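Limitations
The structure tokens in this dataset are predictions for the assembled complex, not deposited experimental models. Users should treat interface geometry with appropriate caution, especially where small molecules or nucleic acid strands are included. An illustrative entry is reproduced here so readers can see what is and is not provided.
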Amino acid sequence: MSKPKVGIFGLTSCAGDQLVILNCEDQLMELANAVDIRDWEMAKSQNDEECPLDIALVEGSVAQVRDIETVKKIRERSKILVALGTCAVWGGIPAMKNDVPREVMLEEVYGNDVRFIESKAAQPLSSFVKVDFNLPGCPIEKEEFLQMMASFLHGDIPEILNFSVCSECKMKENVCQIVYKNQVCCGPLTRAGCGARCPSHNVPCTGCHGPIEEVHYDSHIKMFQLKGIKPEEIVHKMQVYAAPAWMPEKLMEEMQHEGE
Amino acid sequence: MKVSKLPKANVNKFLESLQDFGEVIIPKEKQEQPGVYMFDTMTDPSEVAWEYLRTIIPPKKYLTKPKEVIFKFDSQRGFEEVIEDAEQKRVLFGLHPCDIHGIKILDVVFTHQYTDPYYTRRRNNTVIIGLSCIPDEKCFCKSMHTDYTEDGFDLALSDIGDGYLVAIGTSLGDDLVAERADLFTEVEETDRRKYLDFRKKRNQSFKLDLDIDDLPYILDLEQHSPIWDELGKRCLTCGSCSMVCPTCYCFNVYDELNLDARSGRRIKQWDACLFKDYALVAGGHNFREDRAERVKNRYYHKQFRMVEQYGKPSCVGCGRCINACPAGIDVVEVLTKVREGSYAETESS
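Predicted assembly:
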């Protein structure tokens, strides 16, 4: 059987997810033997930018106009397209301030004269192309990435955990940030896979994996309100990594409704 | 039942002697959060948190692990069974009656009709030593009839002030005492009186009460109570209650593959009926798609179907789920409301 042809790409992002792949040091040779990496700008000097691909791994959000064309072109040449990391899956940190007009932000960051990027509101890949598999994480988890690749190589559809961080946090026997510390912890809303890394270091979950499939906004609003935490505080925290998914307007609406 | 006495001055020596049997697991206070406890390996007897009430996770974690490899496979060489800790001898020390009852229920599930080799191997290598306790406002073991136990332990210690009355539950427990007979003394009449005083004090300390008389019948009548929908709206289905429950035993089985795509490991991991994928089957059908149905299922499994199947509920009143729920859902409150609702309906009809 011929090795699957793989391309690894980055749209607007910090390249952290591609770095995780490079950091799979113990498995990197095995991975390089199992697949044929044809196109990976970050790690290879000679790339085939046109060839058809079996698997495309795409990091980053669509936050520049040119990203739209890039991701469409990748889609056209790939059998399987994977959204790699929270930016690609949910919009990520670049989508945190989508409510502020881009011109305002550009001016604030780069000043009056500089115009070298065509910035746009950050969106996940799925807003533009069909995504076959989502692997969230900021950055992605090494183990989850390797399991995903092994499943593809075996001809399976990969699976990721479909429950929240709380269960992993309990398995670690951490002190609950919500119950004992009255913190705004995104654990109950956030997809597991990290092994409750932050609460294990006594820091409330920041929601970097994005939401679980079935987010219970109503329950969360009630829960935090009963603890005397302001709705704005909750929304603010939820918007950091996956703002488009948290639907801030709808969330605020629900909160006001609950508060009445 | 044979009873002996262990003076407090000799307790540490006895704990040290238990290390000859195997790894000794004790309740310890979490350093970063005073008042929060977990079971962990003893390195020194001074670490025992004698006054602890409940740990975050019950001792089930030593018998059915949160995540374990159950076998390794290779498409060319077949498979090789793995039982983690199969030869590890352990003493679970300081278990309160509720947790001993929890293990008794797990024993029924994992060793009776269908034997789980992973659980059974570890269980057979485990010594259980109980410890008496004084309940707090979240304990309702008395209501669940799990506040005392006559079996399910090798030894059980009851605090009588200057020492512990030690009930010997098994011949292995008897051996452990005989091995260090020099540390134990005869039980005197005053000790018996102190024990009765302790029992009286403990019985009077319960603040939480749940009426479980005919509860399965009431639950059967209340299948369509609006309470289940209300609960469905409050519950985050985060699964915390299941993880911390001494009798929640559900697990998921899945494979982790190696990059050669022909070898890997089969994994057994704690699961919870509150998770959306729990009742998801091939073809995409989900038997409990709705959140309220999943929450309700948890109550019915423990208080209704377990009674039908095994003659008693699988709740031991330890209060861990009350403590762990971020949304503040309280099992006693819920079941009390269900009963009240049922009575109200009867009166109005």
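Some entries come with short summary sentences. For this one: The radius of gyration of chain A is 20 Å.
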